[in-house]
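Structure first, sequence second, as always.
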C-alpha cells in the first residue's frame, strides 16, 4: 500500500489525500482507500467494485469545486465534450466513520500510471482518453495546442487533457509503459500514437519523417512526435488504435475461419483444412 503525503500549494484547493494499490499485470485495476469524508472522482464506466459505506453520485464537471454556479458547471461539462468524453463524471465519497475501498479497472490491456501532481508542478498533460480517476479536488480540463502542425498531424488533434491540482491522479495506457526523464535540451522522437502524457515543461511538437521511401513504404506514419526536455514523458508500447486495427484486420470478412489470414496461402490453407468458405 502506497501512502501519499501532499504539500500545500498556494492559491490551490487541496485535493483529498488518498492511499492506493495497483493490482494485476496485463489487465490492471487500482484499489483506492478512502478515509471518512474523502472522495475520488472517476471517468464514467471505469468503476469495478466498492465497500459498503461509500456513496456514489453523478455530477457535471470534475468535482474539483472550482466551478461556481450553473454556468460554471455547464462550462466545465462542455469542455469534456471537446475531448470526446461524457458530460458526466462519478464521485465516490466515504460517508461512513471507517476507511473504505473502491476500485477502478483499465478498459483494455495495459498499465495504470499513478501521477502525483504535487511532484509535477501541479499539472500533467495526457492524451484525451487516458484519464481513469483522481482524488476529489483534482481538476480535469483541456489543453489546446497553439501549433497548427501539432494540431493537424500530432495524433491527438488540437485538444489534450490536462490534470491540475495537488492530489493523486491515475491514467491508463496500452501495453507496457516507458518513463523517460528528459534533461534540458534533450530531444526524443516518438510515434504519435504511443505518446501517453508529459509534464508541462516539456516542449511538444511534430516532425515530418522525411524521405520518399519512408513516407510511402515505411508504414510508420508521416510524422514523429518530438518532445524536448526538461521534464518527464510517458510512452505506451501498444496504443489502443493499433490494437483495434489489428483486431479488425484479423476478422474474417465472410464469417468463415480466420486460419491463414494475412498469408498468401491463406485461401489454400482453408481448402486443405476442409474449410471451403472464403
Amino acid at each position: 500500500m502506497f501512502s501519499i503525503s501532499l504539500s500545500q500549494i498556494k492559491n490551490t484547493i487541496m485535493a483529498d489525500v488518498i492511499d492506493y494499490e495497483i493490482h494485476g499485470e496485463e489487465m490492471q485495476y487500482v484499489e483506492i482507500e478512502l478515509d471518512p469524508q474523502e472522495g475520488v472522482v472517476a471517468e464514467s464506466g471505469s468503476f469495478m467494485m466498492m465497500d459498503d459505506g461509500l456513496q456514489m453520485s453523478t455530477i457535471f464537471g470534475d468535482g474539483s469545486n472550482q466551478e461556481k454556479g450553473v454556468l460554471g458547471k455547464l462550462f466545465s461539462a462542455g469542455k469534456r465534450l471537446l475531448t470526446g468524453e461524457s458530460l458526466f463524471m462519478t464521485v465516490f465519497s466515504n460517508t461512513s466513520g471507517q476507511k473504505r475501498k473502491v476500485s477502478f479497472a483499465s478498459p483494455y490491456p495495459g498499465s495504470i500510471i499513478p501521477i502525483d501532481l504535487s511532484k509535477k508542478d501541479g499539472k500533467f498533460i495526457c492524451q484525451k482518453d487516458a484519464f481513469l480517476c483522481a482524488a476529489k479536488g483534482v481538476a480535469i480540463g483541456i489543453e489546446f495546442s497553439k501549433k497548427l502542425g501539432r494540431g493537424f498531424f500530432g495524433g491527438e488533434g488540437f485538444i489534450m487533457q490536462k490534470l491540475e491540482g495537488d492530489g493523486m491522479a491515475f491514467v491508463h495506457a496500452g501495453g507496457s509503459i516507458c518513463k523517460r526523464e528528459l534533461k534540458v535540451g534533450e530531444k526524443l522522437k516518438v510515434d504519435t500514437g504511443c505518446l501517453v502524457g508529459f509534464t508541462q515543461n516539456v516542449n511538444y511538437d511534430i516532425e515530418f519523417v522525411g524521405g520518399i521511401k519512408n513516407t510511402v513504404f515505411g508504414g510508420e506514419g508521416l510524422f514523429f512526435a518530438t518532445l524536448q526536455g526538461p521534464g518527464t514523458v510517458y510512452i505506451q508500447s501498444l496504443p489502443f488504435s493499433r490494437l483495434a486495427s489489428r483486431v479488425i484486420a484479423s476478422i474474417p470478412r465472410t464469417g468463415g475461419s480466420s486460419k491463414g489470414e494475412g498469408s498468401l496461402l491463406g485461401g489454400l490453407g482453408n481448402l486443405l483444412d476442409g474449410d471451403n468458405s472464403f
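Margin note: The helical segments are 69-82, 148-153, 212-217, 240-250, 266-272.
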